[in-house]
């Protein structure tokens, strides 16, 4: 059945360009599927967004925003108030997942292994009062690896607190050597795990969104027991964080002493990217679900008041 589908895109977070890239593919797929796509570039003017939604009266909203104010429960709250069905997780699931500290704690309470870590002020980390290298510095509520710094030893440059664009408090956690494994969950079921092999130091923003900066190995060529474990852990994270729809959970797999190694949970993305280089569409394609079929599933799965 043809539907009017509002595509919320752009936004005003630091991940605006990622959202716009994702939205291009989504709009094209909606056209191919026969739906009426209504692109809405979201600004800080909430009244404009409300006016657009009230004017177009969409059957469904595909929330393709990334980062703060689009992925953390804020937009979800507005759509709940307006009674419009929307894709991905609801208010609670979005808020819990986007807060790396809370997500870590909840997943650890449910049996997932997490790296040693704590919340600290960046200035204290730079003064050497928190943790000896190797460790990772992460903004608590950002995505796309923005602001992530891997400090391997005393020679690795630390971020300057005076130029730090995020909150003063950050998550600092023990660096886990080994491999980058990510899992897509659709409708509470893990559909596959992929290994990312960045050509640079790590899977940073540039590696995620620049052709040729990383190799994707699908399915992840890891020990069968670990493969089964990472799928199970992704499903647990999806459930305990109250997510719905499509999520992607990120893991580190330390096999430096041989396989089977040790798996660690890092975080869950409640609105994973849908760009040409994004992982969820690639994992779905390996399972026989085309990009258009994935978008159609998201349209059908959209809901409200959850």
Protein model, in words:
- The chain has ten helices and twelve strands.
- It is of the alpha+beta class.
- It has three domains: 85 residues, Rossmann fold, CATH 3.40.50; 110 residues, ATP-grasp fold, B domain (D-amino Acid Aminotransferase, Chain A, domain 1, 2-Layer Sandwich), CATH 3.30.470; 58 residues, 2-Layer Sandwich (Dna Ligase, domain 1), CATH 3.30.1490.
- It has a five-stranded antiparallel β-sheet. A four-stranded antiparallel β-sheet has the order 4-7-5-6.
- Helix 1 links the parallel strand 1 and strand 2.
- Helix 1 crosses helix 10.
- The longest helix is centred in the first third of the chain and has 18 residues.
- The protein is globular, with a radius of gyration of 19 Å.
- The model has no long low-confidence stretch (mean pLDDT 91).
Write the layout of secondary structure elements.
Blueprint: E1 4-10, H1 16-33, E2 36-42, H2 46-56, E3 60-63, H3 74-82, H4 91-98, H5 100-109, E4 117-121, H6 122-126, E5 135-139, E6 149-151, E7 169-174, E8 179-186, E9 189-198, H7 205-209, E10 214-217, H8 224-240, E11 246-254, E12 262-269, H9 279-286, H10 291-301
Parallel strand pairs: 1-2, 1-3
Antiparallel strand pairs: 4-7, 5-6, 5-7, 8-9, 8-11, 9-10, 11-12
């Amino acid at each position: 059945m043809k539907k009017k589908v509002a595509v919320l895109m752009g936004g005003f977070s630091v991940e605006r360009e990622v959202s716009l890239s994702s939205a291009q593919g989504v709009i094209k797929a909606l056209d191919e599927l026969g739906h009426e796509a209504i692109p809405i570039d979201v600004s800080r003017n909430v009244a404009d967004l409300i006016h657009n939604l009230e004017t177009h009266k969409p059957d469904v909203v595909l929330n393709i925003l990334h980062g703060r104010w689009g992925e953390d429960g804020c937009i979800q709250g507005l759509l709940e108030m307006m009674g419009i069905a929307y894709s991905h997780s609801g208010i609670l699931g979005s808020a819990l997942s986007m807060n790396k500290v809370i997500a870590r704690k909840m997943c650890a309470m449910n049996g997932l292994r997490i790296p040693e870590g704590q919340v600290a002020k960046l200035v204290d980390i730079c003064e050497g009062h928190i943790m000896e290298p190797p460790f990772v510095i992460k903004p608590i509520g950002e995505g796309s690896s923005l602001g992530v710094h891997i400090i391997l030893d005393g020679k690795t440059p630390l971020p300057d607190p005076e130029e730090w664009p995020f909150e003063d408090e950050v998550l600092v956690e023990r660096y886990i050597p080994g491999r980058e494994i990510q899992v897509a969950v659709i409708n509470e079921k893990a559909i596959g795990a992929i290994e990312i092999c960045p050509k640079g130091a790590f899977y940073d923003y540039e590696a995620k969104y620049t052709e040729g900066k990383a190799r994707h190995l699908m399915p992840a060529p890891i020990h069968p027991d670990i493969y089964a474990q990472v799928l199970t852990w992704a499903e647990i994270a999806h459930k305990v964080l109250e997510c719905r729809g499509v999520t992607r959970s990120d893991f580190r797999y330390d096999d430096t002493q041989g396989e089977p190694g040790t798996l660690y949970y890092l975080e869950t993305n409640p609105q994973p990217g849908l760009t040409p280089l994004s992982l969820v569409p690639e994992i779905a394609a390996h399972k026989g679900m085309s990009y258009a079929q994935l978008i159609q599933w998201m349209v059908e799965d959209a809901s409200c008041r959850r």
